[in-house]
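This protein record is not my work; I was only asked to verify it. The record follows directly below this note.
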Amino acid sequence: MKQTLREEIGDDIAAELDEVLAHAEEISNSNEYLSIVEIMLILAARNEVFLYDVSKWGEDTGIASKATFSRAKSALEDASLIETEKVPPDIGRPRLRLIATDELATADLKTLSTEI
């Protein structure tokens, strides 16, 4: 899973996932709980990854469907944690780039769920 993340999305997001996983027990003991889909979207936003890329990767690896990623993205947008930016491609529909808000961009990954 992490290898395909590195290959399909990039090294930076894979490194951040490693850091989150290294502190998974601390994160899970916090008052708030983030799903793996929410965590992946947050990491994608911190690295300005396209929603399509992260949701396709998530569906291909069996984490969740593209629809689940889309619903979680909407919830994170409603909570003002991430923003999206339409990026027009040469052909086809515009892609949505995920962008972290200032608060999320500077959040410590070790205490992610308690800071947001």
